[in-house]
Amino acid sequence: MTYEEAYPVIHQEVEKRRRKWQLKAVTWMDYDDVSQLIKLHIYKKWSYYDPEKPLAPWVARIVCNQLSNLLRNNYTNVISPCNKCVCALADGTCEIYGVRDNSCPLYRNWFYNKKSAYDIKMPLPLCHHSSEIDLHLDEKYNIQYEIEEINRIMKEHLNDREWNIYKLLYIDNIEESEVIKSLPQKYRQIQGYKNKFYQLAKELIHEKH
Questions:
Q1: Per residue in 85-134, pLDDT tens?
Q2: Rounded (10°) angle between helices 55-71 and 31-44
Q3: Please, are residues 60 and 20 in contact by the beta-carbon 8 Å criterion?
Q4: Number of H helices, E strands in the chain
């Protein structure tokens, strides 16, 4: 018997177990995708099938094993240990540590080693993207404010000539070649100014944070 000849039975056994796929959080992979992966696996293992034995039980065992493997690889390997811990309480707290956080060594290990994989495998629906992705970066960090603040501090640490060059380069965004032309001959070694601006800004930012 070839795989093609056995396909109706294979398809029937795979479809029988559709209700067993409960991982709805993985929005990019539904049971139709899962069934294709399982059928491909059966195709690759077809040489191991003994035609003297019933086909349906052999297929059924493979389907169940593959469902378990896919669930493990896409969810149970990366979920927080709290989901499987006897100390986890129904209200989302921990019986030992109270809040579920890095106070627990198991949670801390998951946070630093597996949380990023969990975040990738458990994507948010696009309809919630604007309200749930990282609390809006611009709400936590005002880039324009920080730029204006560093410019203000730089002005306090530069003399008038240096500030004029800094302003032309980094605030007015004038081309470097044009800035050089606007300077007196003896002040046209602009790379030295740029190096000073870079080092000073780096030191000021380090002190600030």
A1: 888 888 888 888 888 888 888 888 888 887 877 776 665 555 554 555 45
A2: 120
A3: no
A4: 11, 0
Nearest to 62 by CA among 33, 39, 87, 28: 39
The percent of residues in the chain predicted with pLDDT above 70, rounded, is 84
d(CA 76, CA 79): 5
Predicted confidence (pLDDT) per residue in 51-61, tens digit: 999 999 999 99
CA distance 196 to 187: 14
Sorted by where each begins, the domain ranges of the chain are 3-76, 81-129, 143-208
**3-class DSSP state of 88:** strand
pTM over 0.85: no
In contact, 125 and 27? CB cutoff 8 Å: yes
d(CA 71, CA 177): 60
Q: Are 93 and 99 in contact (CB under 8 A)?
A: yes
DSSP letters, 90-122, are TTS-BTTTBS-STTSHHHHHHHHHTHHHHHHHS
